[in-house]
Amino acid sequence: MDLGKKLREALAKLTNRPYVDENDVRALIKDLQRVLISSDVSVKLVFALSKRIEERALKSKKMDALTLKEHVTKIVYEELVSLMGESYTARLDKHKILMSGLYGSGKTTSCAKLAHFYKTKGLSVGLVAADTDRPAAQEQLEQLSKTVGTAFYTIKGEKNPAKIVKDALKKAKEDVIIVDSAGRSAFDGHLVEELREIADVLKPEECYLVISADLGQIAGKQATEFNAAVPLSGVFVTKMDGSGKGGGALSSVAASNAKISFVGIGEKSSDIEVYNSEKFVGRLLGVPDIGALMEKIKEISKETDLKKIESEELTIESFYEQLKAAKKLGPLSSVFSMIGAVDVPKEMVQQSEDKLKKFECMINSMTKQEKKDAKILKNNANRIARIAKGSGCTEKEVREFLSQFEKMEKMMNMFKHNRGFRKKMEKMMQGGNVNLPNM
Ligand SMILES: Nc1nc2c(ncn2[C@@H]2O[C@H](COP(=O)(O)OP(=O)(O)O)[C@@H](O)[C@H]2O)c(=O)[nH]1
Ligand SMILES: [Mg+2]
């Protein structure tokens, strides 16, 4: 089952409603709990998270610029991000990496992925095959190094991995050196000893543990065990693409002392991402960049300077400026879902997008003077025909736009001259309910 889909459904139930009360929040939390536990997030973590969401949603002060629905969505988002751990920043200097992990976790594949990643960052990479356990392990990495296009080092037939590493270090001149090590079927003393021997020679700046997302919450236990024996700088979580337990793996690693550094999302060398919990949660919730969108909404509500509107004439030109500002928020569909309107039918979103695009074309076909003074357009068939032709719209559409614009102008005039109305408007804007008329 898709964790993201279920999470989105749980949130949609809430965001479809006009008001959010205590029962709504409790029901949402119940849904969230079910979803998280089914993706193997530990019960302990789930309950701690539920408690925090409930407390914050019902007790913490809501920001004026947010509606109640946005307030709850924001809290769920923030708490999920904190459950899934800190985002990672990959280092881009010269450094040496040791990869460790159990059999089949995806070490060798992930070595190639890291090689690909650093190559795309403009660094040269050397791959070192120091898995002397599995017969074909060296060939596997050599093959991958050819595909990615990096240097490759090993000593065929050598049984001592530390020797291979020592020899590679003598020859390698690359910026980033990545050492693949042997796994074991379980975490044991032999594995620790071997890793320590390699680390003594390599002196790695980074030591990544490779863990498959399939392990779910056991991933955290493994990270804790490894970390105690060989200090880890991060965990490379693989197979995020095929596992329903990804949420459990990420949250349990985040709760251990280790950090998630990279995630593998497929079998190809390019299927790698630097771990970003905001992005991960945003994707789960169906809004890829929810954090950035929140910031922008806040900024824009600050920017909506009421005094400015009060003193400024509304012209097609200034309307166009506002249109462009609104477009900065991103595609309308994500703007709609941000303001809680997740169930807006696709056709309607599309219609609004199309309408905005048409407006833009019409405005672009107007002269400077027309943009400043819409009155000269009114009932002027010649000008309307010219704009329709220039913008690829029908004359009827141009007339519709002009009449909508006129309505807005009237509203603005009322706004300027009527204190009561102005107060109402101010309140409405603070609640974030800024509706484009007739859209
Ligand atoms: N779908 C998917 N498969 C992966 C990923 N990472 C590794 N694999 C597969 O997992 C298997 C074991 O990988 P390998 O690198 O040989 O594991 P190692 O024994 O730890 O070196 C291979 O079939 C890989 O293609 C991933 O992120 N997604
Ligand atoms: Mg391997």
Q: What do you see in this structure?
A:
The protein has about 450 residues and is of the alpha/beta class. The chain folds into three domains: about 5-85, Up-down Bundle (Four Helix Bundle (Hemerythrin (Met), subunit A)); about 95-275, Rossmann fold (3-Layer(aba) Sandwich); about 290-430, Orthogonal Bundle (434 Repressor (Amino-terminal Domain)), CATH 1.10.260.30. About 60% of the residues lie in helices and about 10% in strands. It is built from 20 helices and eight strands. It has helices at about 5-15, 20-40, 45-60, 70-85, 105-120, 135-150, 160-170, 190-200, 220-230, 245-255, 275-285, 290-305, 305-310, 315-325, 330-340, 345-365, 370, 380-390, 395-415, 420-430; strands at about 95-100, 125-130, 150-155, 175-180, 205-210, 235-240, 260-265, 270-275. An eight-stranded mixed beta sheet has the order 3-2-4-1-5-6-7-8, with helices on both faces. Strand 7 (about 260-265) and strand 8 (about 270-275) form a beta hairpin. Helix 2 (about 20-40) runs antiparallel to helix 3, helix 3 runs antiparallel to helix 4 and helix 16 (about 345-365) packs across helix 18 (about 380-390). It is elongated. The model is unreliable at about 305-310 and about 430-439 (pLDDT under 50). Magnesium ion binds near residues 108 and 131.
